[in-house]
Amino acid sequence: MNVRLSNVLFRVDLTKPMDQQEVPGHNRWHPDIPAVVHVKPGDVFRIEMKDWTDGQIQNNDDPSDIRDVDLCRVHVLSGPIYVDGAEPGDLLVVDLLDMGPLPGAEWGFNGIFARENGGGFLVDYFPEALKSIWEFQGIYAVSRHVPGVRIPSLIHPGLIGVAPSAELLDRWNARERQLVAKDPNRVPVLANLPDPRSAVLGTLRGAEFDRVAKEAARTVPPRENGGNCDIKNLSKGSRIYFPVFVKGAKLSVGDLHFCQGDGEITFCGAIEMSGWIEISVDVIKGGMAKYGIVHNPVFEPGPMEPRFSEYLVFEGVSVDERTGEQLYLDAHVAYRRACLNAIEYLQRFGYTAEQAYMLLGVAPVEGRISGIVDVPNACCTLAIPTAIFDRDIRPKG
Amino acid sequence: MNVRLSNVLFRVDLTKPMDQQEVPGHNRWHPDIPAVVHVKPGDVFRIEMKDWTDGQIQNNDDPSDIRDVDLCRVHVLSGPIYVDGAEPGDLLVVDLLDMGPLPGAEWGFNGIFARENGGGFLVDYFPEALKSIWEFQGIYAVSRHVPGVRIPSLIHPGLIGVAPSAELLDRWNARERQLVAKDPNRVPVLANLPDPRSAVLGTLRGAEFDRVAKEAARTVPPRENGGNCDIKNLSKGSRIYFPVFVKGAKLSVGDLHFCQGDGEITFCGAIEMSGWIEISVDVIKGGMAKYGIVHNPVFEPGPMEPRFSEYLVFEGVSVDERTGEQLYLDAHVAYRRACLNAIEYLQRFGYTAEQAYMLLGVAPVEGRISGIVDVPNACCTLAIPTAIFDRDIRPKG
Amino acid sequence: MNVRLSNVLFRVDLTKPMDQQEVPGHNRWHPDIPAVVHVKPGDVFRIEMKDWTDGQIQNNDDPSDIRDVDLCRVHVLSGPIYVDGAEPGDLLVVDLLDMGPLPGAEWGFNGIFARENGGGFLVDYFPEALKSIWEFQGIYAVSRHVPGVRIPSLIHPGLIGVAPSAELLDRWNARERQLVAKDPNRVPVLANLPDPRSAVLGTLRGAEFDRVAKEAARTVPPRENGGNCDIKNLSKGSRIYFPVFVKGAKLSVGDLHFCQGDGEITFCGAIEMSGWIEISVDVIKGGMAKYGIVHNPVFEPGPMEPRFSEYLVFEGVSVDERTGEQLYLDAHVAYRRACLNAIEYLQRFGYTAEQAYMLLGVAPVEGRISGIVDVPNACCTLAIPTAIFDRDIRPKG
Amino acid sequence: MNVRLSNVLFRVDLTKPMDQQEVPGHNRWHPDIPAVVHVKPGDVFRIEMKDWTDGQIQNNDDPSDIRDVDLCRVHVLSGPIYVDGAEPGDLLVVDLLDMGPLPGAEWGFNGIFARENGGGFLVDYFPEALKSIWEFQGIYAVSRHVPGVRIPSLIHPGLIGVAPSAELLDRWNARERQLVAKDPNRVPVLANLPDPRSAVLGTLRGAEFDRVAKEAARTVPPRENGGNCDIKNLSKGSRIYFPVFVKGAKLSVGDLHFCQGDGEITFCGAIEMSGWIEISVDVIKGGMAKYGIVHNPVFEPGPMEPRFSEYLVFEGVSVDERTGEQLYLDAHVAYRRACLNAIEYLQRFGYTAEQAYMLLGVAPVEGRISGIVDVPNACCTLAIPTAIFDRDIRPKG
């Protein structure tokens, strides 16, 4: 009778680390991590997942867990899921049918990482670790650390992707090594290279574990396989088309977010949570060539995003705010300035700069590249839905 | 009885260049360009404007006018409008009440600028000049050059801004000069410096004209005063809060767009048009300090944007697509790759690459900074509303 | 050069009554009213129209014109428009491409008709004539008679339809005569029967005029040909499929509304205005049988309706509020009670009952049949978008 | 640790009828049904509920359970919930924070009731019992009985209300008795009067049970206390303001719907389901008089309704389709005709009339009172979102 529960193909016990789960997941990308779940096109099934840090963060007011987080441990993923019939050159169609929290774990966290351990988009302004806890009240999240806002859920997996081929993995490792080599001692690092410490590789053991742990790519960046895209609009009802690089596609998922702002600017960056996801899969044979979807996934957002009609929008242009230096069409800097402008503004309504920063990380703000050709300034905008506040935050005469 | 027409405070004759209008506008930023229109807080009035090139582009199938456009002439603006009571430190509140085409000029153009004369976001892929003409059918635009799409209007001024103070103008010129000095012979240029050629400065004449023409900033980039932000969401009903830098604020407006995609990627980049705008103004005394709106304008979008529910979304990450080089959180490159992925895809549906490029320039596509902290890859997304096509463009099994 | 103006196929002079226009329109339905405009499938053209009363209402504060309005004069329509190739059994496809006010006439009116002359939905509560004037400020309308609200435009023709066949006209007249016969002296009347007084029949003159004037149906009700449907969602970009009953279809249009609430409850009921509409037409041969569209038109709303996200919703059930009598699934009464509940509520925010009544007539309120099977009570709801008010009108603790 | 589960204040066992639950609910309205749950303003809690028929309908292809359903058993409700501090004259504020199915019961049903046992809106056309089963796939429901559609969830309680006072209950019984007396033998009945058969009255037993069972109102109609409003927009995140008639308010809830069309036209009418709801409550002291909310509840819809942009809309006017009789502003008939027009149309796309009827019952269609003053015809519209179909259902040339 219990149809849905019998379809839970990957379970987690929140009291245990990922490598001690009955069926362990993984926290690296490698084609040789064995699949632990098998499904057929058309199957509907449920996957449970831990939060991205593997449970390192507690629901309390002490940010020391954020400061001391073991980032070698991230992101713990559920999978790989082997899809029958999927082969390199196909498109894997993944429908994200629904998502939610696990019973008894209806809360999430947002953190500002310290400069020495991860940093964030505005690390130069916010170098110290900080944490906010968000309690779920149905579709809303509220926080004792950021009062006066109620965030409607735009739940999504921050990380979902397929396994790379060996060739693709080599390419990732090569190009990221070259980047790090430009400034190997930079804090924060330019990229996280393969690192066997804290690696979790599913059922792999022994020499095979050691080999793969040395080669496997870290999960931090989004790449050709999808991965840690942190796209807030991959919410309920969305459909993703993944290029397939290995037999069975080997889909993995994790890093569930109750909500997130575009950019995920605090890095620990959304309302991070454990939970479950309901998925169905299909395969478009030969779809990569047929549709030219070869470099990155393509997706359709779902119909259940929270509806807003009013926004307050902050602009930023690509002039360095500290030096006054004129940069050339630098959207990164333009978006930073839009964020800083918003943080400046929100402080007029009683928020600390840190609260405002975390708020931009967790609220469903829209971050847009509005103009990218008007030399020399890129123009980026940050749109905050005004309905999340319990007061009117618009300027008044 | 003719209430509205008596409120047209700036008129244009489309058969004459801007400097030969009865009341000429301007195409440079400078505090000393005299105001030609005076209004009071609360006033509702109409401003007519020419297209941004001052009428250089014709409704025909020959792109040579795009290739040979005089870019020293851009952007011709209507104004400056002096607002009584506005002083430095205030916020100027501008309501964009309505906009539309001028009778008999219900068409617009999109152009790919040649590398030698402006270029665009994808100039390395599209170095030759090209043009598409868009005819307006009420709220829709259709093109004989890009068949199979019907674009609903998201009309907005690409350029709206207030005059800089002398001090601010000096800062602009200094920082842009420093940038150009890094690669003075680059094609396209890194920035357009002050240039008296083709300058139009309102009613200024003689020595004063010469002085101002040498100092005045070009209108190409968005800056602290707003300016050429090319924000597609500044459409009907939106409200902008401008920092005020000079007495009277000296608002100017131009570069009307029937519609535009985020990024305005072809540079001549929206559906460019002449037309009119209806505006009301107000002043928030001391608003800059009160709200911390000092670096850039803030705005609220209006309620009349076209409603879409289904999108096809392309992702891009910050790896150079030609060299494979890994870049560090480079949103510019990530957005370029998202655009290239979309262009690749649209060619499967019968479009040439050039048509797809122009389509992304003119359709109301959403360009988002989805992830900007997942080192080393920025992740940008480009969302195309599927309803603009006359067929289903989603992947099918 | 003046492309659009040359496509104005029907012009009006607002200073003259409809029968003295250069090309007169009509205010009755009859297959023998001659077409005055001819178009082909694919044509795009513009039609001007007077307000539905033929200019009887003035922009002033005196409601005597509402009280004394000649309702035999309504609705003055522009047309008929003959569409080449349209024949009985076809579907006429009409795209409403754009609409707007005529220059110098940027205002509209709402009226409560007196019981003795028309009445309205709540005539028992509001038996006296009253008027509110609405000035257009771009996409918004504001009124000195109903302060504190700003209504975004949802412009639409209250009346658009095709000519009936002689057989269909006979059926209308027969059934409406039978209804009136049930209570011939009722005030207001149960239906308006053919009445030659104040009839305008295009170019018809003499005996033919007299014959048609006696037979022609009044324009007040919506019927199989579309007609006075007063559907607020027939706004910019919508597409209507009309059954065709006579050769050439003979499309007519009028009764332009700047905005209206569902139900058009004050009868003179929207923000009534003169203006223009841009239309394109097409024909689906044999479409009536092919799609089973035979009794009434079918339509697709356009993409440009104002966006709201927050509503306050009032419920009503089918119990007579004066007698306490339980009615059986009576949606009319249920909607009346929802309206009365809203009017009661709005008075708590400083509006008079009359202002609240007119506000429900002109604002884009949603009137829904929520439950129609839960014997014995129909449940109707009235949803008011809260963003039209300049203050927060929600209940507070 | 299991925060949420400890907040389940009312549990159901789906294998047992409501009167055999550990804590039984009720299926009648009466002030003397004892509260079984107590909460304080500000509390967040979860309530489980059975489907409205108390589990009489099975997930199979045999409609005999629909035909033979015991309608004396409906609606089984969870509650009453006593809210501390709520007194007559107050407003009870109820936030519907989230809803969902119970594990293992992720399906629902729609039924056409037979004329002899309930009937429905179109009983004259569909007098025989029929059933469709809808399986939930995350936010979507699909049916083997109505192929080709996928319905996104607009989950809501069809029935939520507070207890009537004794005086109000008397009024209900008196007015409904008067209605039934007009045609006591009608099939279906005009109203369901108090009936002790199959009554469930919470913990009441013995003589008190017998007294209350004889007096208690049936739950079928919506009334002043809210009740069976079947408002599809009372979905996730909505807030209801109930008038309070008895001490403690005594809130009850049931009749969960996965989705429903406006009107709930098949009577068994939505996708009927068991499930849970998460609620928070508050009280506005003296709110009934302060806001004039005395006759019916008022509500604000939530932000999580599925987003659609394209609709096909069917119109209907108040002329009886069988006799041709002209009715006077009869919105009931006008909506019936709109529904019949839609059913006629959908048959062109391969649906049986019965499938189309059930589809209109379960899909999130909008039923609107578009015009209610244009004598003698009411005009109602039925808008179907086209995105629920797996093909394009618009008319084509």
UniProtKB/TrEMBL annotation, chains A, B, C, D:
Record's protein name: Formamidase
Record bears the keyword Phosphoprotein: no
Keyword Cell membrane carried by entry: no
One Pfam family of this chain: FmdA_AmdA
Organism: Alicyclobacillus acidocaldarius subsp. acidocaldarius (strain ATCC 27009 / DSM 446 / BCRC 14685 / JCM 5260 / KCTC 1825 / NBRC 15652 / NCIMB 11725 / NRRL B-14509 / 104-IA) (Bacillus acidocaldarius)
Any one GO MF annotation of this record: formamidase activity
NCBIfam families membership: FormamaseFmdA
Top-level EC class as recorded in UniProt: hydrolase
EC numbers on record: 3.5.1.49
UniProt keyword annotations, A-Z: Hydrolase
